[in-house]
Amino acid sequence: MDDLLTGFAQALTPENLIWALIGVTIGTAVGVLPGIGPALTVALLLPITFRLEPAAALIMFAGIYYGGMYGGSTTSILLNTPGESSSVATALEGNKMARAGRGAAALATAAIGSFVAGTIGTIALTAAAPLVADIAIGFGPPEYVALMAVAFVTVSAMLGPSLLRGGASLVIGATIGLIGIDTLTGQPRLTFGVPSLLDGIDVVIVVVALFALSETFAHVLEGTGRSRVEPVRGAPMLSRADFRRSWPAWLRGTALGFPIGSLPAGGAEVPTFLSYSLEKRLSKHPEEFGHGAIEGVAGPEAANNAAAAGVLVPLLTIGLPTSATAAVILTAFQSYGLQPGPQLFTESGDLVWALIASLYIGNVLLLVLNLPLVKVWARLLTIPAYGIYAGVLLFACLGTFAAGGTIADLVVLTVLGLIGLLMRQAGVPVAPAIVGLILAPLAEQQLRRALSLSDGDWTVLVSSPLTVILWLIVVMALVMPILWRLRSASRKTS
Amino acid sequence: MTEPDAPPAENDQARASLLLGLIMVLGAVVVLVDAARLRDSDDAVGPAAAPSLIGTLLGLLGGALAWQGARSGRTHAGEDRGKRRLWRLAALVVTLIAFAFVLPIFGYVLSSAALFTAAALLLGAPHPGRVVAYGWTLAAVAFLIFDRLIGLSLPAGPWGF
């Protein structure tokens, strides 16, 4: 608790508050642009924070992160173009409400729901993170290998329409992660003699390529220069009836979002859909679902934000990113000189608590900023698509240049953008690729560390009860979908 | 999967799956050949183990994707429809590559303004004059913020911006 207060003291200086405000504002402004989800917002805006001192950078970053999340849901509701799979559920009912002229109420319930869920989620993070870090400090390489195996399997199964497509994406990411010098033997892998590939390909470049360039390419390919905007009518306020229907949904969404998000498994999308179907089942107005039911916006949006706070638990305490956004956050932290993991809280405790305090502050700023400014954000959507995507391209190249700084990086960006376009066309989700890119090298490193500690004895991987349980989860996650399919198939034939 | 008229979107997806799968198989070969070249170490898991595993998985999943694509798509439909779109895409890719090489020579602002203009026109912007103005403004503002204010050093052309 004292730690948190110190964190607030550090974050609440006038200078840092201004950084937080700037972060929230530009985070929302970029996140609002169609097709730009939180992961891409954070990746595109990362260069802005590079030259700040670590505390200010983290505080601004927290603002960008939460602003990007909120901006993304605004677009999902108004345009039905969710930038990331975790806003798909929000868009289902939210866009129906917008089309029925109830966009203001949908945005209000999303904003307040985000605030409620974000605040409760951050409180839960404050309580859970030190505990998990205490447990994780006893983890050795075998536990890490098993945890990463769980993340691999669940990310490919949950972040995609099928295990094949999710797995394909994960492996594409893992392949990109191979590029660079092998840390143990110092040999270059897959560098083809290009010097700038020796350090590997920066995560920011991959995120920008797979999310931003592929989207721009898709628009060029399909010639879709125009998108329709639903005007926001009325003030973004909730009527009493709307409020009565919203608040239980916010709380239920939060209750689903945080625990599931904080599991070391593929994360933020599952609770949003669970929340959607839960609200549909519990609603007193089930006939409104599919035509703009407010619970269907309130619940998933709260689940999304609570999960976003939950994802920070394995990220900060174990160093395990389970979503594309978390993968970018991990890179950001490393560029500020922070190494997420069990030691983070003891080694850079003051910075982490300043970050957590800024999450609270960011949440309040968002609410204050967004309810009055909803119409301004909605006007950003009237920028024609060609302007948005040409601008995105410009900033994508800028971000790439800031991250890598060579011509070769820009060529890599273009090539990866084409691969991203192909993945998109083939219905292969891109988010697992980002997770694979980060996790595969980490898993390799931990596996080799585990085996060199045990002198090549493979049984070290199942040497503790926790590892056995985790490997059983891996097997179940792989076998269950197949059994499921066989069972439903046999039921159909009988 | 032999319905006479698969919807064009599904057909596109099948073709993209086939192409992506084939690229993955090709990538798998590259990864495996590269892995075979590595000097082994005396550790239990050497430097080639991860690439071999990932390469194998890449090949298997790519093969499955390609097979699925080939099975559900018909290859001969909609050949001309996509030609012009592909040309536009190719033009954008060429623009991006050109941007990469021109950047150190002409500096950030001019190169980026040109990139913006070309991209916006390829995306279907109606007023070329206005697009050029937007491009200049955006590139100049980005340069001022990132180079002058934040201190990332962006490439300056012979005229210093």
UniProtKB/TrEMBL annotation, chain A:
Q: Which residues cross the membrane?
A: 17-46, 58-79, 104-132, 144-161, 167-185, 197-221, 306-330, 351-374, 386-419, 426-443, 463-484
| Domain DUF112: start-end pairs | 17-434
Provide this UniProt record's keywords sorted from A to Z.
Answer: Membrane, Transmembrane, Transmembrane helix
Q: Which domain of life is it from?
A: Bacteria
Task: Specify the signal sequence span.
Answer: none
Against InterPro entries, the record matches this protein to: DUF112_TM
**Known Pfam families for this protein?**
TctA
The identity of this protein, by name, is: Putative tricarboxylic transport membrane protein
TrEMBL record, chain B:
InterPro entries cross-referenced by the UniProt entry: DUF1468
What are the TM regions of this chain, as residue ranges? 18-36, 48-68, 89-111, 131-150
What are the record keywords, sorted?
Membrane, Transmembrane, Transmembrane helix
Work out whether the entry's keyword set contains Membrane: yes
The DUF1468 domain covers 21-155
Entry annotated with the keyword tRNA-binding:
no
The name on file for this protein is Putative tricarboxylic transport membrane protein
